[in-house]
Target: DUF2306 domain-containing protein
Amino acid sequence: MGLSHLGIFHTIIGVVAIIAACVSLFRSAKIDLGKLSGKIYFYFTLIASLSALGLSSVKGVNPGHILALLIVILILWAYYLHVRKPGNNRSRFFENFFLSFSFFLSLLPAVNETFTRVPVGHPLASGPADPLIAKTLLTLFLLFLVSSILQFRNQRRINNASC
Model:
């Protein structure tokens, strides 16, 4: 597999973040920063994204670095909204969307790296352009869209009930 120590650390932290997001989505129908699973997602995603800046197979800034920085911006913005704009209001729509979008973006390199490395010696995909990766990412994108719509509808119902 050929992972550096930083790569191993990044992978473990990233997997924990993805599991925490899935638990939060399953339990709360959103990544809820007020609950333990949401907090784990936030902190572990922050660490995984920042550690990704030290990983590169080429010199200089690459698309993976830009993606990591975008994820950091999204989760920090969501955290700001969570802390500074409490209550059931319009800020929850943006907070939910930013966290869900950051989760989707986190899955892009996770799918690519997993499919091109596992199983060791005979990976599922030959590279980023492999049709299996494209189909998987399309499926994840559609799930992201559907879940975002459901989160929006649920948050609107919560906001209307609290008025």
